[in-house]
Amino acid sequence: MESIHLVEDCMGILRLYSDGTVLRAKNIDFLLPSVVDDTSVVFNDILFDKNHDLYLRLYKPTLPPPPPPFPTKLPIIIFLHGGGFCFGSRVWPNCHNCCLRMASGLNAVVMSPDYRLAPEHRLPAAMEDAASVMKWLKVQALSRNMVEGSWLNSGEVDLERVFVVGDSSGGNMAHHLAVELGVGSPELWPVRVRGYVLMAPFFGGVVRTKSEEGPSEALLNLEMLDRFWRLSMPTGETRDHPLANPFGPSSRSLETLILDPILVMVGAKELLKDRAEDYAKRLKEMGKTIKYVEFEGKEHGFFTNDPYSDVSGETLQLIERFMIENSS
Questions:
Q1: Is 8 a catalytic residue?
Q2: What is the pTM of this model?
């Protein structure tokens, strides 16, 4: 009888064994920043998917709305966290701090959902959960019985100004939401998505890009990227699978699709930079409304891991401008 052995080890945080057993470290504090105490934002945790026991964290700024002619109702930002489809949670300090910063800095209600993680739940599980949270928002918008603490149909929020912001693997998910929901997101009425922000989207492909080949980043290298794909893709699939590579040989053609506006942001030193740039270039050539912004000298997670830095302030300004330009 063959002995059980270690197959994959992600920084000691996640270990996959040959019998399919997955062990996750309970203490990951050494990887995460401290929680920011921002009293200008309140937040609640809400169950949105009973079948999979998935929660979201909802944030609302406490400051009064700006005076006219600015909108008095708060827009909604749906933030999809990163982590290579294998790590991350709404409760992790980097995700929490990022959402606090967006809620206060953009004067918006922020929804941060958890989703099922690989390898226990390989793709398309995460994609299904992203779609599920969008449907949950629609149900809340139509319901007369508001979930306690959700604020979503209390008259304070603008359900017609919803923006999806995805970081890394969350950026990949944001792309697939944009494709599936289509322009104006008619299936979600009375909710309307106005645009998508993809922050260093985690796309892949069998053929390497120049940026993937190096140099490595402080917190990310090519071996880790490949490991995330091995752990998250359906068994037996390659990095050209449609959920990894939007332009793969079997991926859906985007030529004829009409999409809501997209903003792509990436650090110039990121391994994922070339794929993000190529994605934006191809969609622009197809006539899509898309903007690409590159941050000189920055690596992966420059916003989510330090959302109160100067460059993160610039990032928020870009997102705010994108939201204003696409709110009507």
A1: no
A2: 0.95
